[in-house]
């Protein structure tokens, strides 16, 4: 047996445990969920659960609510994360040093604790409402048990990760490029759109993909902070499965969420492949 064949077998043996783990944890549950979503109570294959998913008023409102919440959260996270990354990359001083030391703290706080912290701070009887009452304010906007509270939680959970990715990408842009652009009279907007954004958009796309998948499948914050109706798909799926005892319909919800994430993943992979081909030529 040649050395090359031995190396191939050894590499295969190293890959097999990870592949089996992926099969039993990811692939097999997906196949089972897809199969169950097409079955009715009698075990017969039918499309009734998907028809219900897209025709029932409550179900469609949950879908639209989830998509709206996800898109708004992704846009806000990218804008704020990009602004923080640019500020830390091209500025200096004590404020920048303070931001660099503290912006990753939310990543190390468990979601349940952070959610209860948001409730205590922004609830109708929370700290912020009490402080405003001292200054004569008798009304406080509804944030908790509303979509605004979920967006606030999504910002808390995702801005640090996004800022970290974008800061790493911006650090790879040579200062010579920025200085050369300034020397020929380029404005700040021109520098951003012609140099900074093109050199960092791949990392931005990676961040958008992870944010989208994390938010659309989120459960903890929407369950604790979100409204009773409409609900995000993760909370709705849990209610359908545990309260209504309809595992087939819950599986249809799960498959739909998987399809949404797969579409986002497809566009990400397609863009990466096109860019790699373009750079190769």
UniProtKB/TrEMBL annotation:
Protein name as it appears in the record: ABC transporter permease subunit
Keywords: Cell membrane, Membrane, Transmembrane, Transmembrane helix, Transport
Organism of origin: Paenibacillus cremeus
CC terms in the record's Gene Ontology section: plasma membrane
Record's bilayer topology term: Multi-pass membrane protein
Cited InterPro entries: MetI-like, MetI-like_sf
Domain of life: Bacteria
Keyword Cell membrane carried by entry: yes
BP GO terms, sorted: transmembrane transport
């Amino acid at each position: 047996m040649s050395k090359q064949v031995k190396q191939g077998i050894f590499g295969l043996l190293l890959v097999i445990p990870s592949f089996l783990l992926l099969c039993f944890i990811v692939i097999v549950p997906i196949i089972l969920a897809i199969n169950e979503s097409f079955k009715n109570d009698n075990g017969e294959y039918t499309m009734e659960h998907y028809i219900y998913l897209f025709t029932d008023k409550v179900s469609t409102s949950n879908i639209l609510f989830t998509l709206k919440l996800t898109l708004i959260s992704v846009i806000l996270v990218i804008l704020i994360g990009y602004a923080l990354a640019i500020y830390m990359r091209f500025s200096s001083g004590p404020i920048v040093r303070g931001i660099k030391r503290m912006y990753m703290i939310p990543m190390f706080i468990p979601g349940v604790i952070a959610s209860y912290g948001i409730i205590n701070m922004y609830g109708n009887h929370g700290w912020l409402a009490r402080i405003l009452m001292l200054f004569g304010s008798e009304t406080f906007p509804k944030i908790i048990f509303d979509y605004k509270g979920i967006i606030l939680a999504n910002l808390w959970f995702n801005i640090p990760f996004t800022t970290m990715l974008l800061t790493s990408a911006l650090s790879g842009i040579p200062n010579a490029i920025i200085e050369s652009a300034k020397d020929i009279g380029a404005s700040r907007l021109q520098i951003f759109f012609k140099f900074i954004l093109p050199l960092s958009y791949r990392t931005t796309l990676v961040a958008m993909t992870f944010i989208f998948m994390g938010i659309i499948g989120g459960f903890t914050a929407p369950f604790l902070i979100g409204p009773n109706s409409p609900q995000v798909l993760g909370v709705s799926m849990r209610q359908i499965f545990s309260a209504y005892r309809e595992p087939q319909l819950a599986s249809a919800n799960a498959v739909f969420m998987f399809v949404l994430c797969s579409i986002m993943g497809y566009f990400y992979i397609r863009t990466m492949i096109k860019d790699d081909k373009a750079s190769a030529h």
